Amino acid sequence: MLKLRTALCLALIVGTLTLLNGVLQGARIETIIYRIIVSIAIFGFIGYGIGLIVERFLKNIALKKLEEKSQRDELKENEPSDDVTENSEFAPFTSTSFEQITRPKE
Prior knowledge:
The protein has helices spanning 2-25, 29-78, 95-98. The protein is mostly helical and 106 residues long. It has a domain at 2-75. Helix 1 runs antiparallel to helix 2 (29-78). It comes from Pelosinus baikalensis.
């Protein structure tokens, strides 16, 4: 989407400048229209190329930041937690451990 927006904006800016330049120079209407069409086509392709390059560049930056974030998250998971002692044992609650629960006697 960035490619198309860049191409459209660049083409419209150049087309407007071409129109103003043609009017200020007193060119015929056919000449102005021809120049506008050529300018919009050329700079539309150039804008699309610029948008393509910028989009790839931003995507690479986003992927690098995502990888760094996942690496930081992995490091945090591997670090021992301060509130859990090393001697405490954790056993998940399963159907076999359900039988080991003792009920208080009255």
